[in-house]
From TrEMBL:
Superkingdom of origin organism: Bacteria
Keyword Electron transport: no
Stored InterPro entries: Bact_exopeptidase_dim_dom (IPR036264), Peptidase_M20 (IPR002933), Peptidase_M20_dimer (IPR011650), Peptidase_M20A (IPR050072)
Protein name: Peptidase M20
PANTHER family in the record: ACETYLORNITHINE DEACETYLASE, ARGE_DAPE-RELATED DEACYLASE
Length: 424
């Protein structure tokens, strides 16, 4: 532990850039002094399973984080959702004041690791790397927010500020549009949104990220003895689904920022699919022409125009059915995209100035195509936004998920100074 603390202190010394003001240097010092407490809290919450469908686990993590925010003078509340959604709800913490910008700070309490999966506890692999479920996506980001606010509170710099902290409970598997109604309403009352999904190092932030929607392809065909394939029975449902998917790939796969992944395909004489369990069943034989094929996939895009154009072209491909087949495709909206904007880039410039004043160098805008969809996109149309401000690391959504321990204190310091400048 002493060795790890020494590594934190050494890595943080660079933060005392010549251009930081006296209050900002005080903020940096507070972050450094509080790192042992910060890491102990991170370990505690990582070791609580909070897969989206583990409602008790999500609420337990939310209670712990809410308690920390209450200590900092925030009023906390739990936003409940209808039982039919099977989602835990959201943590909201607010404080009202008259100084500076009204900030909307975004995180999420859930992870992709459901309770049925083997537990991967928080583990310090070495002085620079820790692993664990959700350690960077995004419990590391949530704890970063709390640590930054704690440093500001220690220096008496949260007084008279207006900050809303909104940690959703179902970012990894949303309960639907109703689940984000309160989220959007509160964001509209603020001036700036900062989201703390995984950082891609110290030198980039996210000014744009793609949206995500889903599609379902259903193919029906004449079924019968396999000797009739290519002639009296036509081509069957599997060949037609193959044609469609290959044409999607051939004609659309090179468009920048656009991807469409068929995540499930099942075909045979009969097909059944359960939306609640995401499980499919089929019955078929090699000597029977397939009468049904089902394909389910996602569509990722940057901007509504790209999404709608892709959907139109996909429909055109689907409509050109092979003989004796009939295919239909349906689309469902999920998370909108966050398009890069001048206002978002102005925020990026503020982060870059903080970084340079800390002696860490400039910060550039990351590639929108390198990010998946995120909660910030629900509010990107209403106020300037940034994302990718959380813990840095690798392997999100996998058993190899890690966090960069050396960059973590610097990212907390950067966020704390940024919040200070925005709320003056």
């Amino acid at each position: 532990m002493r060795k790890l603390l020494l590594a934190f202190l050494l890595s943080s010394q660079v933060a005392f850039g010549q251009s930081l003001t006296k209050p900002e240097k005080g903020i940096v010092q507070s972050v450094q002094k509080q790192m042992p407490e910060t890491m102990a809290f991170l370990e505690k919450v990582v070791n609580i399973n909070s897969g989206t469908l583990n409602i008790e686990g999500v609420r337990t993590v939310g209670k712990l984080m809410g308690d920390e925010l209450q200590k900092l003078g925030f009023k906390t509340e739990w936003i409940t959702l209808p039982d039919s959604m099977n989602r835990a709800g959201h943590l909201v913490a607010t404080r009202q004041g008259k100084k500076g910008k009204k900030l909307f700070l975004i995180g999420h309490l859930d992870t992709v690791f459901e309770k049925s999966l083997p537990m991967e506890p928080f583990t310090r692999l070495n002085d620079s790397t820790a692993s664990g479920q959700g350690v960077n996506d995004m419990k590391g980001g949530d704890v970063l927010v709390i640590a930054a606010l704690k440093a500001l509170q220690t220096q008496g710099l949260l007084d008279d500020t207006s900050i809303t902290v909104y940690f959703t409970g179902d970012e990894e598997s949303s309960g639907g549009p109703e689940s984000r109604r309160d989220f959007i309403k509160r964001a509209k009352q603020c001036d700036v949104a900062l989201a703390f999904e995984t950082a891609q190092g110290l030198r980039t932030v996210t000014t744009g990220r793609r949206g995500a929607s889903s599609w379902t392809l259903n193919v029906k065909a004449r079924s019968g003895h396999s000797s009739g394939v290519f002639s009296s029975l036509g081509y069957g449902a599997i060949y037609e689904a193959t044609r469609i998917l290959n044409e999607f790939r051939r004609t659309l796969s090179q468009e920048q920022y656009l991807t469409f992944n068929p995540g499930l395909i099942v075909g045979g004489a009969e097909v059944r699919y359960d939306d609640k369990t995401a499980k499919a069943e089929t019955v078929g034989k090699t000597n029977i022409v397939a009468g049904a094929t089902l394909v389910k996939g996602d569509l990722r895009f940057l901007g509504e125009a790209q999404k709608e154009n892709a959907r139109a072209r996909m429909r055109e491909i689907v409509d050109k059915s092979l003989p004796q087949t009939k295919a239909t495709i349906t689309f469902a909206d999920g998370i909108p995209s966050m398009e890069p904007s001048a206002a978002n880039d102005d925020l990026r410039k503020l982060v870059s100035k903080v970084s340079e004043d800390m002696g860490l160098g400039p910060v550039a805008a990351g590639d929108p195509g390198s990010r998946g969809a995120g909660d910030v996109s629900f509010v990107a149309a209403y106020l300037p936004c940034l994302d990718g401000l959380g813990a840095s690391g690798k392997g999100a959504h996998s058993i190899e998920e890690t966090m960069n321990l050396k960059e973590y204190p610097l990212l907390i310091q950067r966020t704390a100074v940024l919040i200070y400048r925005l709320t003056r």
